[in-house]
Description:
47% of the residues are buried. The model has no long low-confidence stretch (mean pLDDT 93). The protein is an alpha/beta fold. The protein starts with a strand and ends in a 16-residue tail after the last helix. It is built from eight helices and 14 strands. The chain has helices at 13-23, 78-85, 115-123, 133-147, 176-179, 194-204, 237-248, 293-307, and strands at 3-8, 28-34, 58-59, 69-72, 93-96, 111-112, 127-129, 155-161, 184-185, 212-218, 225-232, 254-256, 272-279, 282-289. It holds the Pfam family Semialdhyde_dh.
Amino acid sequence: MSIHVGIIGGAGYTAGELLRLLLFHPDVELKFVHSQSQAGKPLHSTHQDLLGETDLLFTDALDFDGIDVLFLCVGHGAAATFLEAHPVPDSVKIIDLSQDFRLKREGNNYVYGLPELNREAIRTAQHVANPGCFATCIQLALLPLAAAGQLHDDVHINAVTGSTGAGQAPSATTHFSWRSNNVSVYKAFNHQHLGEIGQSLHQLQPDFAHKLHFIPVRGNFTRGILATAYTPFAGSLDEAKALYQDYYAPHPFVYLSDSNPALKQVVGTNKGIVYLEKHDDQLLIISMIDNLLKGASGQAVQNMNLMFGREEKAGLTLKALAF
């Protein structure tokens, strides 16, 4: 039986990736793609690579009764506002790709949707908050250490992201003539994803009380995130590798590499690749994902598969690259 899907905010980058995945998912029937600005236009008028793939039109109508799950691909703050104005039936599951419900607070019944952290809770969840892209990449680097109680000091993190991480609307720091052949730092030490990263580390290692020193970098490429993190680790490199291998053994999208990886290995996929080195007392962890897939829409489909009892990798095994 097909999973009937609706999408809110269908014109952006994350929605475009989500559409590419869902249109070819073996168990999905796409019922509507909502966009007030594009209503009545074909999907391929915005997502041009979908020409010939679907005849669906954007709509400004909402048919919650005809769907099983609703994906919210709207901007930060807009998801909560939308749900206040448009109550969704209790029978409809929700996967929110904004940051509105990622942090635990009173009245928030959303499960944090990082399968490598909360897979079993996601399986039974009615509402899931999809993690942020930086947050996903950095957590994949650190979760095994936290699970083993091995975060005993501050963690230093540097991560570079592609321009699609800033969304589809051009801005002073995302348009081509500024971004091309250029690199810059932004939101040093106070990026919004630090809250959810810290929340997850505390979930696995409740006594973790050290700082995360995070320097985000705008890269001169379109998609992907490469993060480097380092922190003291008393064990050997082989012990660290065994710890990571054991942690990620049940998780089908995360791979521990024996050689220093390159970002192109993950672009267009739902993979996370992790690589370890030991330098004196410091453990260096390199982690990389595609920000639009494992960092957003691919992970959202992964969560949908878990919520509806489908095989976790369903619809996510092919390389899907539009940029």
